[in-house]
């Protein structure tokens, strides 16, 4: 088995050893039927994943900045535009690329949960995003998992983050 650089998270799944959150998510999604059907749908999933990752990376730069409050003010127009773009892309679809859940929906759900804590009013103009998160949480296996001690909702980030890394979520 080839080694990977010392990095978290990582997964060893049979003879497959992978690092990088999005790579792991994509691999497990493909392996378990959440990778989309056909080249067009797979491309749409990858496109959505990349857009979410871009916004998530921008968020991370803000919350790990020593000038968090100032950076947040500068970031908010980009954040609000990103949330609006996600809302528009989702539209009235049940899931991100249609009627079937894909691995990108897991990625989006995580980001939307973080977004609600980062800016509690972010769904005010986008009820479809609130409905989406409720629909995701209501999935039987997700609901079951979230009720266990294994589910960890906080911290969102590392301890050095100015937001999402402390002992308790904001009230």
From TrEMBL:
Residues 1-36 form the GST N-terminal domain. Residues 38-156 form the GST C-terminal domain. One of its GO terms (biological process) is glutathione metabolic process. InterPro entries: Glutathione-S-Trfase_C-like, Glutathione-S-Trfase_C_sf, Glutathione_S-Trfase, Glutathione_S-Trfase_N, GST_C, GST_superfamily, Thioredoxin-like_sf. Keywords: Transferase. It comes from the Eukaryota. Pfam families: GST_C_3. Coiled coil: none annotated. Homodimer. This is glutathione transferase. It comes from Dibothriocephalus latus.
């Amino acid at each position: 088995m080839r080694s990977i650089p010392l990095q978290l998270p990582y997964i060893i799944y049979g003879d497959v050893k992978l690092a990088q959150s999005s790579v792991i998510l994509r691999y497990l999604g493909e392996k378990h039927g959440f990778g989309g059907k056909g080249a067009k749908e797979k491309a749409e999933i990858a496109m959505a994943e990349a857009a979410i990752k871009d916004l998530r990376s921008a968020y991370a730069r803000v919350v790990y900045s020593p000038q968090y409050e100032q950076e947040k003010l500068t970031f908010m127009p980009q954040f609000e535009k990103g949330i609006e773009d996600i809302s528009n892309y989702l539209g009235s679809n049940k899931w991100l690329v249609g009627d079937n859940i894909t691995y990108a929906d897991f990625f989006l759900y995580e980001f939307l949960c973080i977004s609600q804590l980062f800016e509690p009013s972010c769904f005010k103009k986008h009820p479809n995003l609130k409905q989406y998160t409720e629909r995701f949480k209501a999935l039987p296996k997700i609901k079951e998992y979230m009720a266990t001690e294994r589910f960890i909702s906080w911290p969102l980030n590392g301890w050095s983050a100015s937001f999402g890394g402390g002992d308790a979520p904001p009230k």
